[in-house]
Every structure is written in structure tokens, then in C-alpha cells.
Write a structure and sequence with these properties.
The protein is of the alpha/beta class. It has a domain at 28-92 and 153-261: P-loop containing nucleotide triphosphate hydrolases (Rossmann fold, 3-Layer(aba) Sandwich). It is 46% helix and 9% strand. It is built from 11 helices and 5 strands. The protein has helices at residues 28-35, 49-55, 75-84, 92-98, 105-114, 127-134, 138-165, 197-208, 212-220, 225-231, 242-260; strands at 63-69, 89-91, 170-174, 190-194, 234-237. Helix 3 crosses helix 11 (242-260) and helix 8 packs across helix 9 (212-220).
Length: 272
């Protein structure tokens, strides 16, 4: 889906280290919920990982940091590594799909706005057909965003609230258009996954079966990775092997935990 989070771009001070958990637009009620979360210390100290995770319910608030990049940069692989270490990751792209499933009010509004031609033979959203309508039509893209954005924000708030209720101290929010949407300050520290454009093109062609010209057009339609890197607190350079990418992801997650005062033992590195 094109331009899920809008078109405004906001530069952020890369030296800022404070974490504001998430944008107030996502859900102010979650802030109030977390502010009330307090408890008593456990009677007996235990060293098990399970106990460490249970104790998070009794400490502070859940902090949310941002993960972004460009198409073909490898941010999904970094998110996968974070999940392998037990860190909750909220995928904005998945939420955008969830709010337009068959039978949803989101899909019904899209059909009413753009016509039945945006549906496939199974009654699901045909993203390619919708992309053809909105890709070069700013007004159409704004109408689409007006339908999807409020629903994605509401679902995001729900997911964050669920993780907070489960006692999570730290959550990663993976958002392709994090910088473009002006969310960087609310999601400090921001992690940007970068890669040379030639590698982006190669990966998009291999992954999506796209032609080189199509891959370059999709990359050109996004904010450049160089601009996103300027906003980053942490940059992961994905031009090497998968093992090198995982090592960088591990180091960044450990550094984020240290910055935010979260015990890294909650997120052990996979063995082997």
C-alpha cells in the first residue's frame, strides 16, 4: 500500500537520546494506562529469564523505539533478528494489511472510494491495482491515507497496550515511512537499516520479480536512505553477509537496552 503514513518529512536531531515511547496521535489513552502501571517487588529474587520477564510488569513503562529503512535495505531481516531474541516487534505494514481484510470497514471504504476494480477474485484488496491508481495521483493518495491512517493508529495503540499489559519493557515499531511521517522524535532511538542502491535494486528484483526499471522507480519514490541516515541514532549497514547483519543488529539492540536502562538479559542472543 502506498504512503501509509502520509507525506510530511521532519528532520530530527540525531543526537537526541530521549525516548517518548510513541506519538501522542497513536493513542493518548495508552499513556494514561502505562502511568497507572505500578506494583510491588517480588518476594524472592530469581535469576531465570522467565522471572526477569515477569518482573517487567512491575517496572516503569513500556518504551517503544523505531526501526526503518528503504525498500530492499533489509529492515525486515533486522526485525526478524530482534524477534529471535524475544523482543516484541510491531510491523506497521502488517497492521496496514490487517485494517483492510475482507469484511472490514477499511476495505469497504476503499471500494466505495476507488471502485470494485481494486478487489481481486477472492474479494481481497488487489494492492497492485490500487497502487496504479494512487502512485502518481497525490489527491487519490490523500484519500487513501484518510481511510487507512486512523485505523492503523488505532490498531497500533492496541498492540502497544497488549505488550504493555504483558509486561514488556521494550517494543520495536517497524515503520517504512517513519521519517517521512514525522514520527522520529516520538520513537527515539531510531534505527535505520541502510544499503547501497545497487544492492537495493538487486534485492527488489530477486524478491519481487520486478524489472530493473521498476525496482529503481520504487526506490526513487521513497525518501533516500542518505536522508534517513541523517535522522538515525543507530545505523545498520547491510552490504555484507547475513551473519554480519545479525551481529550489527545484536550490537544495536544491546546499545538501545543500555541507553534506555533495560536489562539485555531479557533478550538473549540465539545460540549457534
Amino acid at each position: 500500500m502506498s504512503d501509509i503514513y502520509g507525506n510530511c518529512t521532519r528532520r530530527a536531531d540525531s543526537r537526541a537520546s530521549s525516548n517518548r515511547a510513541y506519538s501522542p496521535k497513536i493513542c493518548d489513552s495508552v499513556t494514561r494506562l502505562w502511568a497507572r502501571r505500578r506494583g510491588k517487588a517480588p518476594r524472592r529474587a530469581r535469576s531465570s529469564l522467565a522471572h526477569r520477564r515477569r518482573r517487567t510488569k512491575l517496572r516503569g513503562v513500556t518504551q517503544v523505539f523505531g526501526l526503518t529503512g528503504g525498500i530492499g535495505s533489509g529492515k525486515s531481516r533486522v526485525a526478524r533478528r530482534f524477534r529471535e531474541r524475544g523482543l516484541p516487534v510491531i510491523d506497521a505494514d502488517q497492521l496496514a494489511r490487517d485494517v483492510v481484510v475482507p469484511g472490514s470497514s477499511g476495505l469497504a471504504e476503499i471500494v466505495a472510494e476507488f471502485g470494485a476494480g481494486v478487489l481481486d477474485t477472492r474479494g481481497e484488496l488487489d494492492r497492485a491495482a490500487l497502487a496504479k491508481i494512487v502512485f502518481n495521483d497525490e489527491a487519490a493518495r490523500r484519500r487513501l491515507n484518510a481511510i487507512t491512517h486512523p485505523r492503523v493508529r488505532e490498531l497500533t495503540a492496541l498492540r502497544i497496550s497488549e505488550h504493555a499489559s504483558a509486561g514488556a519493557l521494550l517494543v520495536c515499531y517497524e515503520v517504512p515511512l517513519l521519517v517521512e511521517s514525522g514520527m522520529a522524535e516520538a520513537l527515539r532511538p531510531v534505527v535505520v537499516v541502510s544499503a547501497p542502491e545497487a544492492l537495493q535494486v538487486e534485492r527488489v528484483m530477486a524478491r519481487d520479480g520486478a524489472s530493473e526499471s521498476d525496482a529503481r522507480a520504487r526506490i526513487a519514490a521513497q525518501m533516500s536512505l542518505a536522508e534517513k541516515v541523517k535522522v538515525a541514532d543507530f545505523v545498520i549497514d547491510n552490504r555484507g553477509s547475513l551473519a554480519e547483519l545479525q551481529a550489527q543488529a545484536d550490537a544495536v539492540l544491546d546499545a538501545i537496552c543500555a541507553r534506555l536502562g533495560v536489562d539485555t538479559a531479557l533478550y538473549p542472543r540465539p545460540s549457534g
